[in-house]
Amino acid sequence: MKGFWANKRVLVTGGTGFLGQALCRLLDGQEPAYWAAPSRTDYDLCHSEEAAKLLADTEPDTVIHLAAQVGGIGANQQRPADLYLNNLLMGTNIIEQCRLAATDRLVVVGTICSYPKHTPVPFQEEALWTGYPEETNAPYGIAKLAQLVQLQANRTQYQQQGIFLMPTNLYGPGDKFHPTVSHVIPALIKKCVDAVEQGQSSIQVWGTGTASREFLYVDDAARGIMAATEHYRGAEPVNLGTNREIVIKELVDNIAETCRFDGRIEWDTSQPDGQPRRCVDTTRAKKLFGFEATTEFKKGLELTYEWYIANRQQAEALHSWD
Question: What domains, with CATH codes, occur in the chain?
């Protein structure tokens, strides 16, 4: 892999975010000729002129677009318009500016939130257009899906060869633990750690516990992105995942054990479960660029917990942008 990256000039948007930091750690080890991971305070990609300036300043031949405004179920319920518009604008601007600059390689990272709510499990890429996404995730998911449409349209009209990847739910060191923006694993780790520290005999968890999710360790996702950047040039979207799902109730039990919490789990069934099941088919990723996840789930949980304990202040800071 190092030979491919050695002479590259690489730009990672969202490089200071959760996935971006993991990708940049791997990228740094490949010693490219140049790479940059500017923050949103440097360039606001919601504005086309700033996206243009970013590409002019960095002159990349490879762009990996990770920048996003993100959040859990609560954020999706409270700020759906922000999540739709800001993610749509950032993706649209980066894709268009890469086209104008004739950037050699463009990788856009989407989301499995784009899949229809009742997609048969495991999710196959062909099912993307068979229905409407789960309602709380729809604005974010559709904004990301629009970027796939733009990439495919540009490929037809301008021969721009951008690729589109869809990682499943990510977890790992560096995740967001603030309650406003955290997803299920960091939210539950924080809840269990707080309960242990405060001597609580129970914790409350949203939903019924019957939904299922698939989780991909962030370093595995970064490896998948790098493999796709090097080996894949096709028009079709590609899932990144583990092809293994876990029921939320089992997930909560695993996290409680990892965090040394032995109290009761109380389910707040008045709150939504979100999409009933999520698990992706990873056949295409393995076939097209040889990607398979390698991190065992409980090991990844332990590493995430240990990072959180060692970095509480950083982990709990409020950052809604990647």
Answer: 2-175+215-244+277-295 (3.40.50.720)
